[in-house]
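Input/output pair, single chain:
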Amino acid sequence: MDGKLVGVISTPGPPCWKVYVDGAANQRRSGVGLVLISPERTTIEKSLRLGFPATNNEAEYEALLQGMPMVRKMGGKAIEMFLDSRLVVGQVKGELEARDSRMQEYLSQVKRLQSDFNLFSLSHISKSGNTHVDSLATLATSSAGGLP
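Output:
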């Protein structure tokens, strides 16, 4: 290129939220943990107790269904979500079939909310890479008072 510098032109994508979610369930309670990171790197942590009994997979879906509207309410149009459930990630991506009627309903709710975003991605993350959010979800299943 005859010694001239060549500039690189890149177009930035939409400001993207990163959201780490996890669900937890035991015999007495179920809950979700969420860590939302804004495009400006503001971190929001949530531990929410579910007001109904749920399986672990249902709690994983509930975590998605809590995180997505939170980002939308804060004006987010692009979201990258991370979840340690291979089953739920596989169902949302269409790689696995949701056979149970409750899983099918959860999946359809996630698909409806997905359409609210210009960019939506969901990735599987290892349990060891999701320990902080797992702790928040476990907190929601504890007997600690004062949780919603």
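The helical segments are 56-73, 86-92, 101-114, 131-141. The longest helix spans residues 56-73.
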